[in-house]
Design brief:
single chain; 72% helix; 253 residues; mainly alpha
């Protein structure tokens, strides 16, 4: 899925910016040579080719290999954390929706990380999937006022804070799609504490990963979407552990 999403991101970018299509088969973006099937095996082809095109020897880039590795780890983590084989039918629906949501968010993370944009159509798809996850959770656990307040708290923390930042700064601090991305993640998690952890973790990841780049380039823009998505996947995978720790601390108090 990481390989597929990276490919589709390039196709969409070429179509939107250059007004041209890359064709049905994968090609090298430097020499336009059509690639063979054995040049497109996720992870392995990149390693065997040394991160370079077989024909023109130009660098392929790090985005492709990172997308393949991280999406593989994300799918594995979600499967291990949710364990669909021990779930009810409704639990299995949540599992499938979560995987589809991770896929949609993976595309958004790739596109935002490369070009600083969050395509509207994919935001809408991700929003529908996240609403589906929230609805299934309400159906599974039963509607209650505490659950509603928890959901609204999550929306306020992630969607609300980024919306305020966007409006106050008129788009200078965060992009127009960041608050929608925050809303999507909040709906999927449906828990205020987990949303707060995503908020803190995403900022920490952005600081740690981007610090060397920002130190060299003072006016370097930081596209925040990838860090929000990474934080969401980490929290989703470890949600049970985090909820256990939070509940334990609340009981101790």
């Amino acid at each position: 899925m990481g390989s597929f999403l990276a490919c589709q991101a390039w196709r969409l970018h070429y179509k939107d910016v250059g007004g041209k299509k890359l064709g049905q088969r994968s090609v090298c973006l430097s020499c336009n040579k059509q690639l063979k099937w054995y040049d497109n095996i996720p992870i392995f082809s990149w390693i065997l080719l040394g991160g370079k095109c077989r024909y023109c020897k130009k660098k392929i880039g790090m985005m492709e290999i990172l997308a393949e590795l991280l999406m593989g780890l994300a799918f594995l983590g979600v499967a291990l954390a949710l364990n669909p084989f021990e779930m009810t039918l409704l639990g299995k629906m949540i599992f499938v929706l979560d995987l589809l949501l991770v896929t949609a968010l993976g595309f958004l993370a790739i596109y935002d990380g490369m070009w600083g944009e969050l395509p509207s159509f994919m935001l809408v798809i991700a929003l529908v999937l996240a609403a589906g996850v929230a609805g299934c959770k309400i159906w599974l656990y039963g509607f209650s006022l505490p659950m509603l307040w928890n959901l609204l708290g999550a929306v306020a923390i992630l969607g609300g804070i980024y919306l305020v930042l966007y409006l106050v700064s008129r788009g200078k601090w965060v992009g127009s799609g960041d608050w929608v991305l925050g809303l999507i993640i909040a709906l999927s998690l449906s828990e205020a504490w987990l949303a707060l952890i995503v908020l803190c973790l995403s900022n920490c990841l952005g600081l740690i990963i981007m610090y060397p780049t920002v130190r060299k380039k003072k006016n370097q823009k930081i596209y925040f979407g990838p860090f929000l998505v990474m934080a969401f996947v980490i929290v989703l995978v470890f949600a049970k552990v985090l909820n256990g720790l939070i509940f334990k601390q609340l009981m101790l108090k």
